[in-house]
Amino acid sequence: MHRPLKTPPPYAIASVDHALRLAAMLQLEGGLTVSEAAERLGVARSTAHRLLAMLVYRDFAVQDEDRVYRAGRVLELAAHSPPQASALRTAALPQLRHLARLTGETANLSIRIGDTARFIASVESREAVRVGSREGMVFPAHLTTAGLLLLAELSDGELDQVYAQERYASRPGERPDPAALRAELARIRRSGFAVNSGRSERSLVAVGVPVRGRNGAALAGLAVAVPSIRYDRRQTESLLSALNSAARAVENDLRVPAGAGSAPDHADELMAPGAGAGLTGKDRRV
Fold it and tell me: Rounded to an integer, what distance in angstroms lies between the CA atom of residue 252 and that of residue 185?
């Protein structure tokens, strides 16, 4: 079942979008200064300060003695976020920017939390028609490129636990077919990459590879997302070459301590989706 195309509402409210994105950053990464928030959102420091002050007022954020804003009581889930997420994002951002320049397409980094995949970093293409930023967004893991890559790391028993039928008692239509999923994950393990063609969202094709720690465990999925109207299957080989090079560079920069595993499983915890970027000017994001 396809999710609707991720497009901003016709009357998008920029301030609300910025506040939601800030909340998602605080929840996932654990701390931001006013300058960092302004840079990430592409707004003035004064605007970022006002947004953060409102989040503090509503208990979405707190400010510590070092004037760093952190997740407040409403976002207490941040304490359970994968501790590697911030380090992964920092290590991956230069490579995401390089991938976006090299391929001309949007580059993303995602982690798995239970049966969901969360986009922790995104660098948009500069093309007029492009896949928009997914940073902070949450999707079912089996419907995303990175999610499939990370699910492929699980044993049959672990996969059964993630997709146990009782977990989907109130939403049976969202549970993937176990046999079909196992077959797909086996193909991904053999090939070492995943391709998502319109699976998570219509009009989108994404190609991805895993980012691994020193012990060989996949920590995240690195992907390039292309509008389907521009995607050509003959591109896959060149995209994979660029992705694998970028993944190795992230791994080298990350210096993950031996024994660190993949993101912990928090399937029972509610993950709050972040907000994507809106349309600007004549650009069209898909």
Answer: 26
Q: How far apart are the first and last CA of the chain?
A: 18
What CATH code would you report for 14-81?
1.10.10.10
Write out the CATH class of domain 85-254: alpha beta
> 3-class secondary structure for the chain?
CCECCCCCCCCCCHHHHHHHHHHHHHHHHCCECHHHHHHHHCCCHHHHHHHHHHHHHCCCEEECCCCCEEECHHHHHHHHCCCCHHHHHHHHHHHHHHHHHHHCCEEEEEEEECCEEEEEEEECCCCCEECCCCCCCEEEHHHCHHHHHHHCCCCHHHHHHHCCHHHHCCCHHHCCCHHHHHHHHHHHHHHCCEEEECCCECCEEEEEEEEECCCCCEEEEEEEEEECCCCCHHHHHHHHHHHHHHHHHHHHHHCCCCCCCCCCCCCCCCCCCCCCCCCCCCCEEC
pTM here? 0.68
- Where are the domain boundaries for CATH 1.10.10.10 in the chain? 14-81
125-172 pLDDT tens trace: 999 999 988 887 888 999 999 999 999 999 999 999 999 999 998 889
Contact of 2 with 270, CB cutoff 8 Å: no
pLDDT tens digits for range 253-267: 987 444 444 433 333
Write out pLDDT tens, residues 214-263.
889 999 999 999 999 999 999 999 999 999 999 999 999 987 444 444 43
